[in-house]
């Protein structure tokens, strides 16, 4: 209910009555890593980690990004922050293509985009005190000095639920959940607009996960943050996101409002992914019809022709082998899926659809 | 008589900082064809319990000050290592979490499965070869003759785990201990592996001990559940009872801290405050009281034992069933959880 209304509201209540701008947009973004072989290190092929992604992230929303390992989620995150230079495409931050920026202008933009990493053990320098870790972005961007900076860091530690006295301690003195809080404090230090959360709770124990998820939600409300939340756990993504995008082999295969995506998945991959997740409810588990996909994800170095999912898709037709489905609007315009034979309401995933592809005739 | 019975097992490790009571009084029993789910956070003693049954904890530092592990009536803590080697792999097999580190990278997959078969069964080389191909077929590996000649690095994560299951099942064990077998895998592959385990259980009547931190996996596969916290079993009941009517505040808190696919986004998560205690310096009284949302003064002093709260439903908590249910209802109402 509220999230449907909320999504609509973001579209309608932009400044001057215009639809709300996208904070970030990617256009046909591609990252092809070269594969080198032989003595001469000649390029013999490419790993198509991200292969033509068009994605809009609206101001103030949380966009969930899900997919199996190796589908390109994390590469996409790094491209958006320009930690990797894309092979092709555009990244628009507040309407400007940041790929054209020089170093100096890029530094300014980076103030507004931060990232929280998955592994709280690897993402904090063990030889730096917590105070220095959190102060580092302030230092890089010359924000405040001396005692004022220290005060700001202590404030930040309090905001994320640590104590200001932790300032002089080192990362090894903290538990996983507390370390992730340090990572969060560092990310919000410069009051960014956008935070990319790359599997922020995957390495944490279940009882600790909830602490960090609640913290992220509270911070979003307090500081008006926009999140891109990457995870492979679809329950966590559903909990925190307004809209969700599903990735498969470097492509977005479906993107929709949370309720639509989980309630009425159109792409057979999304539908089977959802049916594969075990729910902590034994009675429901017994009644559930599961679609177990066969085989593994194909290699992104040698993706299949046509629709990338056709090798595992229970409803694939000959047509899917030859043609690449575009990410097309479904019944409601906000719901887009890249499938010629999308799953319709009340249909089973295995049910072979009509032989005429959707919106192609 | 149960097939596997663990009675008041204690596994302690001597370390420089003191004795780590990794498992401190755990009991359970397992019938043929049954699946027991052991749930708990990292460090709660789930894996050490399993390794104790397999007698794979290095001694020292491990010691077993108390308890017994009865497999078909014989106490595994007392059988000589020679006999244990016959039981291990043949009668009780184990699958580990990380299939990459549990397969030897310098031998072919077929070679490793064949080794397991030839140790336990009196088969010729060609017969063992045939058996290898057959178990690989059983676990759904396509083109098994060819695959048997390949090395682990040529297998994907899901296929490696299938190969591990093939190895574990090659001697038709009576008990299969699976320690987080799907944690390192993607959900679509996890679904394949769990389905495979259930199929094989139906086919061979294997009893399964499923160790996991994923409550969803437990609810899908287990008949009964044991919840562990700080080396102790804190709740033991049928799967339905633990999920729908948890009587230990820890199990209940775990369920409330978990985003669920069916209610996600509608109710705020209720995190468990603090972190699990150190196994060397356990708190006085109930181990869970510093984190317990329902703790009373008495909980700081009294260390509760597992007791039957309702028929067939045991929990370690000094609160009465009425008190626990009252507390649960009150918090659920605040959270807005309809049940």
UniProtKB/TrEMBL annotation, chain A:
Entry keyword annotation includes ATP-binding: yes
NCBIfam families referenced in this protein's UniProt entry, alphabetically: oligo_HPY (TIGR01727), PRK11308.1 (NF008453)
Xref: SUPFAM superfamilies: P-loop containing nucleoside triphosphate hydrolases
Protein family (similarity comment): Belongs to the ABC transporter superfamily.
Protein name: Oligopeptide transport ATP-binding protein OppF
Keywords associated with the record: ATP-binding, Nucleotide-binding, Transport
GO biological process, any: transmembrane transport
InterPro entries: AAA+_ATPase, ABC_transp_ATP-bind, ABC_transporter-like_ATP-bd, ABC_transporter-like_CS, Oligopep_ABC_C, P-loop_NTPase
UniProt entry tagged with the keyword Ligase: no
GO molecular function, one term: ATP hydrolysis activity
Source organism, top-level taxon: Bacteria
ABC transporter domain location: 35-274
Region (Disordered): 1-20
